[in-house]
Amino acid sequence: MKRGKQEGMKRKATLDELANLVGGKVEGDGSLRVQGIASLEEAGEEDITFLAEVKNLSRLEKTRASAVIVPINLPPSPRPLIRTANPYLAYAKVQAFFQTKPLAPRGIDPRAFIGQGVKIGRDVSIFPFVFVADGCELGDRVILYPGVYLGESARVGEDSVLFPNVVVMDRCLVGKRVILHPGTVIGGDGFGFARDGARHVKIPQVGTVVIEDDVEIGTNCAVDRAAMGKTLIKRGVKTDNMVHIGHNVTVGEDTIIVAQVGIAGSTEIGNRVALGGQVGVVGHLKIGDGAMIGAQAGVGQDVGPGQILSGSPAFPHREWLRAQVAFRKLPEMKRTLAELEEKVKKMEEAIEKKAHS
């Protein structure tokens, strides 16, 4: 296998360069160079750290970091600062900067299987025990880690990374800059069966899966191929681990799906939707743009744009909060009701006794 030249030195940057990267403003020596970012407690003298909220100001005094990314409203400090409106976002960008390694393509390992008619772009890295079936297409700088399987005529766009044991089945399309984490399966059969008396007859799943650019799908997820047509994961979608997306589902741009969510077939999810952990969504529904569904909610009807729902069955979040308060009081309410019933019973007995005297 061919290997690129490895970079041994750590990446460094000045505060001015990092401030430019995150859209912040430097207070202090902008020429100061740092070589990494770490938490307030773990940062060393050559690191930058970050403080997301002013209420944690006391933690700043003990850090050994050379500089700090802070909110705009933080009081002045003798330590060099980068002020920004969103320190947590700035942290993400700076961390990505330091973690990005120079491209070192490994080429194609001889222990990988490459089928007939496969188109392979420049500077790819294909590790041992990868299987690439006939007719596949790989873009530039694609990385396929050990155990990856690409079915016939699958396509993977440039700069995408498929971690170990990812499966992309026949004719499925993966866009540019997509990250698929270990054990995820793209294009397994959708769950479709027709009843024939007491038996279940399999409905052939002849569609495909299309994953657009800049999508990241977590570990051990399943995105099922469509019965006909396509299951569509649009640009910028991010899923956590162990998420199941059924056949013919459409997931809109920049949607966030947290762990253990299950979405049944033919559901349409809008843009910028957030589904909390363990949410279950019934099939053939529509969830509007910007909707938010709380953890463990059961969604059994359409959700309008911008709605916030919780509970199972799901209903408006504010009403759910009031219901939770009432729910906690049920034992006390039950005792009170029993006492009232006993009083009413005694009153009725007294009235009846008086009526017959």
Keyword list:
flat; disordered N terminus; 357 residues; Udp-n-acetylmuramoylalanyl-d-glutamate--2,6- Diaminopimelate Ligase, Chain: A, domain 1; alpha/beta; nine-stranded parallel β-sheet; 4 helices; 17% helix; ten-stranded parallel β-sheet
Characterise the protein shown here.
The protein has 357 residues and is α/β, with parallel strands linked by helices. It has a domain at 13-99: Udp-n-acetylmuramoylalanyl-d-glutamate--2,6- Diaminopimelate Ligase, Chain: A, domain 1 (3-Layer(aba) Sandwich), CATH 3.40.1390.10. Helices cover 17% and strands 28% of the residues. Strands 9-12-15-18-21-26-29-32-35-38 form a 10-stranded parallel sheet, with no helix packed on it. The radius of gyration is 28 Å and the shape is flat. The relative contact order is 0.06.
Counted by DSSP, the helix tally is: 4
CATH architecture of the domain at 13-99: 3-Layer(aba) Sandwich
CATH fourth-tier homologous superfamily of the domain at 13-99:
MurE/MurF, N-terminal domain
What's the overall average pLDDT, rounded?
Answer: 92
Strand content: 25-35%
**Strand runs, count:** 40
